Amino acid sequence: MLLLFNSLITVFKDEWELVAIKLVIDFLIIPNNRKNTESIKIFSDSQSAIGILTLNWKSDNYGKTIHDIKIGILALKSEGIIVSIEWTPGHADIQGNELADQLAKKAAQEAEKIQSIPLFTKQDIQKGAKDSVMLKWQNRWDTSEKGRRYYAFQQNVKNTIPKDKPSTEIYRITTSLRTGYCNLNSYKSMICPALIDKCSCGQIETVDHYLLDCENYEEAREKLRSALYFITSKLTLESEVLLATTENDNYKHHIEDIQDLLGVFIKDTGRFTK
């Protein structure tokens, strides 16, 4: 069993790293959580935590947490399971993670001024872990070369779109329109060059063509345009508005209404039922 741990972004980084390791040990002590496991390796980028646990470095704090971890490791060893804790390099040169490390160091300096270290609840630890993961996920989403078309509609990974609004089928179609990987001829011809990339109207059938231009769906589009006017005060249609997620500041209070109207348009065109 291989477990990877990066330091949590917390006010007391070393303690949170130790608490995270303790939670793992507590989890693995339960027999059902380690079936067919003979050895466990826990990787951490906290040299202090590793030194305290494996080299018996002196620590004036975290006594109970350290004691509980060592007792847990001995308990696993008594059942024939060897636990090793090893160091792994941190994620240097990544902008978001470098910022996280800077914040952690600054917070640690502030912590030295505090006379007593407050207790942390399990909820605090879970929130810290979640915030750390979200920051790293956001950094990867911001810097990735993949999914750039979808990124235009959703920059923030925290924002999610209900998968049943207005229906699961419409959600599936609108998501495919955001990514561009959809059942339109422009994309299908990229997958199979033998297929034509044109719409029945003679123009290349892209997402924008389907939503904004195709004369085959002008009646449905006019219905959509009229309904959207009362929300956007615009007579022109824009794919950025039609396919927007909840982070679109201009229309964030009307996202569900816009999605409902787009769903009606998709049904009226019948394009994805062919």
TrEMBL record:
Domain RNase H type-1 as annotated: residue spans: 1-109
Any one GO molecular function term = RNA-DNA hybrid ribonuclease activity
What PROSITE patterns does the record tag this protein with? RNASE_H_1
What protein name does the entry list? RNase H type-1 domain-containing protein
Species in which this protein is naturally found? Mytilus edulis (Blue mussel)
